[in-house]
Every structure is written in structure tokens, then in C-alpha cells.
Amino acid sequence: MCRPLTDLDRHLAEAAARFGTPCYVYATDLVEERLAHLRAHLGRWFAVSFAVKSNPNPALLDWMRGRLDCLDISSGGELALAQEAGWDAERISFTGPAKRDAELRAATQAGLGELVLESLREARLADAIAGELGRVQPVLVRLAPARVPKGFGDQMAGRPSPFGVDVEEAAEILPQIAALPNLKIIGLHIYSGTQCLKPEAICENWRIFMQVFADTCAALDLRPEKLIFGAGLGIPYHPGDSALDLAAIAAEIGPELDAFAARFSATRLVLELGRYLVGPAGWFVTRVVSVKQSRGSRIAICDGGLNANLAASGNFGMVLRRNYVMHRVGGDEDGARPEERQDISGPLCTSIDKLGGGVALPRLEEGDLIAIHACGAYGPTASPLHFISHPMPAELLLTGGQMRDVTRIRGG
Ligand SMILES: Cc1ncc(COP(=O)(O)O)c(C=O)c1O
């Protein structure tokens, strides 16, 4: 099904041999290429902010420090990871619907660039904390639009949602936030949908953002320093998915973005995203521990399953489980391993620990390595790593052919 990539396979096999399995390999050269591609098509209008939630590995964040404009964090823990990676708090924004006193305090004290307020409750708490610390905290208000176009894998607005201020309530809530003495509204933020592979849906969503931003700024008489567009850019995960066409997006929405940027000429427009940058630059490598022939099915049972990679098992927000693209490291050995349909499961004692159903792969045997693609985002960070107490997956950074162990969470 999937041709082995010889050079890649060499690195993946090296990763498994040197650092053990299961493991993740993140290729920074590929992240660099994706960033260049993103900037080539959309950089004329937007700076880029990386959503740490998608991959908080400190070595990766460190690598990004001189290459990306800003970071978005969603917890005090992510603030600590970003700081450990050398990021200046001033270049960081902080989203999240249930921020606690201690994390607001730590972020304000650190000199956070922008606090992204998700409610009036949070605004009042943040105001009190900033007052105690003798600081005026710059804030963006997160707005939840009334509509999200069809085509997003997950949506955070357009229906009852815990995220941000519903646009219907904005006229009542935003002036109350604006009146708080220790906060300064410097802009707005929207993140309403994610994992979209349809250019026209992305454009339609950004059109909604521009309307909401323009209306809200007019109502508040706000001249924003920053407007954050939650990008929603998706990546291909499954056989048959096509990569998002950024040129098509730029061609369709470019004139409207030009007009918007001219109207907000003193404003920095920012695209906030995670998976688009790092997802396709990561592989998850797991080793076949055992093979079972069961009632007509061949099942390869591997050392890493949903415990190490929840997303690839289809249990991270996927309605219908679909196989990720994957290949056998080493391919079909010049025909010695003819392709057949096989099931791939993990080491856990639950039937949902399945990484593939009926996947066409060269016949798998004990000891083989399987590489699952598009695993650079929502990997270890989105997985129940402690369930059944198997070893933690290693994380490896591949830069210019050199591999480095950057495992964040060790033990097992
Ligand atoms: C507020 C916010 N920002 C950024 C992201 C990153 O999304 P993605 O990795 O799909 O780009 C998300 C994802 O849920 C989010 O909720």
C-alpha cells in the first residue's frame, strides 16, 4: 500500500535499535519545510503562533525559538515547558477555558505577552491578580462565533461550547472587561474549528472571523494590536486524504485579507496552529511482539498501542475509527513479504487498543517495525501513557540526519 521510504526507514530503524520501541521520530527539516511553505502562501498577511498543546516537547520548542514568531500555551505546565525551552514569556499567549488562580499568577508574574480571556469570571480573577502584582496585563478576548462551516474535524463554536465569549453575549461582556483597571484589551482571538482539509471551508471560516473582528472592534472602539486567527489547517491522516492546498486558500481569500489588513494596518494578524506544522513531520514506530492467526484474521500485536498513541487508535475525537497511513519499515523485502490485509493491535488488555484494521501491509512477523505516519502532533501529550504501566515512548529529534534523544517523559 505504502512504498517504503528507504532513507526514512534507515532513520526509523536506527531510532528503534538505539532508543527502543515504541518511539516517536520528529524530523525538524520537514517542520522547516512546512513552515517555509506556510509562509510562502500566507506569510504576507500572518505571523505564525505554534499551539504548544499539539507537541510540547521542550527540544522541539527550543528548535522553534528562533524560527517561529510566537507560542500559544494552554496551561501553567505548558508555560513552564516553554520557559524551559528558552522562550521569552513576552512572546507567549495563554488560552484555555478553566485557568486557575495559580497559573494566572505564574503567567502574569512571568510577563506573559497576552492572556487570552475566555470568560468574565476569568477576566475578574486575572484583573485582581494583575492588581496584586502591580501589573497591567495585556489581554485578548476569545470570541466564539455563531457559525462554523462544515468540514472541520472538531468545532469549538457554533453551538453550546465552553470556549470563549459567545458573540451573542459580546456586547454585554466586553465593556465590563474593558472597564477592569489592571487589564488592557489589545486584541481578539478566535479558534472555532480544527483539522479541516477543505480550502473553501477554511476561507469561509476566516471570512466569519474578519466580520466578527471588525464588528467587535467597531463596537468597542478598539484599535487592536493583535488579532489571532485559529487556523484550523488540517493534515492528511488516512489513506486517500489529500494535503490541504494553501495556494488555493491564498488565491480565494487573498483579496479579502488584503482589504482587511489595509483596514487594520496597525494590527499584527497571527495564525495559531499546531498540527499543520509538526504533524506530518513525525512518525510513531512500534515493534511487533507477537503474531496471532485468529479465525481468518492475522493480527500483529505491538509494543505500543493507544497507551502511547491514542490518536492513531482513533480514540482521540474520531467518530469512526479509520486507519492512519502506515508502512512496514523495510518494505516487502523485494517480494519476500507479499502484501496482505492484517490487523494491528497494541499491548493493552482492551479491544479498543487497535492501531489498524485490515491494513494492507507486507506480511508481518515477530520483531518487525511498523511506522505510523502523521504522528508529530497529539502524540505522547494526548495519550494515556500510564495505562497498564508499559514503558514510556522515546521521543527523538532528527535534524540534518542526526538523531537525538529528547524524551520528555521517562519511566514506565
Ligand atoms: C485554542 C486552540 N489553539 C490551537 C489549537 C491547535 O489546533 P491544531 O493543532 O489543529 O492546529 C487548538 C486545538 O484544539 C485550540 O483549541
Automatic annotation (TrEMBL):
Cofactor(s) essential for the protein: pyridoxal 5'-phosphate
Active-site residues, Swiss-Prot/TrEMBL: 349 (proton donor)
Example GO biological process: lysine biosynthetic process via diaminopimelate
PTM sites of type N6-(pyridoxal phosphate)lysine: 53
Domain Orn/DAP/Arg decarboxylase 2 N-terminal: 31-278
Molecular function GO terms recorded: diaminopimelate decarboxylase activity
One Pfam family linked to the record: Orn_Arg_deC_N
Keywords for the protein's UniProt record, in alphabetical order: Pyridoxal phosphate
Source taxon at top rank: Bacteria
UniProt name for this protein: Diaminopimelate decarboxylase
